[in-house]
Amino acid sequence: MKQIIIDIDMSDLSVWAECYSTPVAVQLSSLAIESIKSSRHAIEAIIADGKPVYGINTGFGKLSNQSVQSEDLCRLQENLVLSHTVGAGEPLPTNVVRLAIALKIASFAKGFSGVRLEIVERLQLFLEHEIYPVIPEKGSVGASGDLAPLAHMSAALLGVGEVEFQGRIVPAESVHKKFGLTPLQLEAKEGLALLNGTQISTALALAGLFEANRSLTTAIVVGAVTTEAVLGLEEAFDSRIHALRRQKGQIEVAATFKKLITGSGFRAHSFETGRRQDPYSIRCQPQVLGACRDLLSQAAELLTREADAVTDNPLVFADTLEVLSGGNFHAEPVAFAADILAIVICEIGSLSERRLALMTDPSMSGLPPFLTSEPGLNSGFMSAQIAAAAMVAENRQRAHPASVDNVPTVANLEDFVSMATHGARRVLAMVDTLDNILASELLAAIEGCDHHGHALTPELDAVHTMLRASVPRMNVDRYFAPAHKQARLLVRQASVPKAAGLEHFSPWN
């Protein structure tokens, strides 16, 4: 199990990538522990003072003018959590839940939330023993925090609801008993601190970012193989062209393409095809995929800041014993980042489908019709392109910005919300669809290269060898599904860029 340390400064995106990719145990720095304790002492001093302070001894939202007696403060926080467990739909993926818990711990560690150290320690215990609350995917508008999903997470701390433990879904109360623990009883401010925050939408967006970058890197390698298969011209990747554009991503992607194809046996033959200009899907790959890389970098910057933020409300300033109410729970930055990711994923898939279509068209590619040795008797990649087109259309529908939608809530007190949570959630579904498109192109591109029979560069030859180890030639028809499933697995596991030596080609590395 990976051990990570959470401090009051958590601006390293690689930490969150670890939390997403593998089980983690979290330790708090001594400074984080002191910050949490100081924040809690401030809350206790404010309670002793007896003045009404939002979120501590008042109702919430539209009910914030209602005072709550001191003997009811614990019940107030428990009621808040339990009343908000209204999520619906399938459970969030385990790795997203794990990441969200780590993000919540990091937010509390900064010392502006007023929770007891015991709350954070229970979250740490959940991570250490791989106890993951079952959190329904639907129900948050991404403002006032991810209330419903975080309520389901928090209810598990109280021994309510269900958790995933050792591969099974079990009652939350049972895991407390297993470890000899008493379910937590919340005290003043703690329920609100647990529910307010953007940790679910941020975890979903970070997951989308990590997966989108893996897909982009895969698309670059697969695009290079396709360039070889259609005997594309190397000239379009000349560094002098891209230096004049001054776009960082374009320059980096062009250099990568040139490295992947220069010196192969396909290069000399590309000058013999008679085509002096390639279609845009080949010629403009650095411009398109480079722009995608730049947008991923922008999304990464937004989400790095959000993961390092305090996003609950109200916030406790221990040095002045003030509790200030604002709107850091509003997830507009996450919503924008998610919309950026959706656009990137859609474009990667659209370009991949165009390259696939190019390879199946003999008038453009110079390859046999639909990449089959016996067209007519065999249909080859005809339906693979049709399926890819269907999936491109699906992702185009999903790419509509979620952030421009707004449905006011809480009797119009919360009248402008971000819709970040479902905006971020749809990104993972879009990546799943994109993986199918890239898998089809990978199969076709390798098949196209085999039709020519020229030598690939060592990087692309490693990709060829990897695929052919499990997928034989596809120049005559057979049951297509197993080949596509295997190619999709290679895409999903990032095996394609790893084989080509690009496993660390992230814009934030």
Automatic annotation (TrEMBL):
Give EC number(s), comma-separated: 4.3.1.3
Could you mention a single GO BP entry for this protein? L-histidine catabolic process to glutamate and formate
Spell out the molecular function terms from Gene Ontology.
histidine ammonia-lyase activity
Classification via InterPro entries: Aromatic_Lyase, Fumarase/histidase_N, HutH, L-Aspartase-like, Phe/His_NH3-lyase_AS
Q: Which UniProt keywords apply?
A: Histidine metabolism, Lyase
Q: Which GO terms describe its cellular component?
A: cytoplasm
- Signal peptide (from-to): none
Read off the Gene3D superfamilies from this record.
Answer: Fumarase/aspartase (Central domain), Fumarase/aspartase (N-terminal domain)
Q: State the reactions this protein catalyses.
A: L-histidine = trans-urocanate + NH4(+)
TM spans (from-to) = none
For whether the record's keyword set contains Transferase, the answer is: no
Indicate yes or no for the key word Phosphoprotein.
Answer: no
Task: Please give the pathway this protein is involved in.
Answer: Amino-acid degradation; L-histidine degradation into L-glutamate; N-formimidoyl-L-glutamate from L-histidine: step 1/3
Short name of one Pfam family: Lyase_aromatic
Could you say which protein family the record assigns here? Answer: Belongs to the PAL/histidase family.
Q: Which NCBIfam families match?
A: hutH, PRK09367.1
Name of this chain's protein: Histidine ammonia-lyase
Q: Which organism is it from?
A: Oidiodendron maius (strain Zn)
Give the classification, highest ranks. Answer: Eukaryota, Fungi, Dikarya, Ascomycota, Pezizomycotina
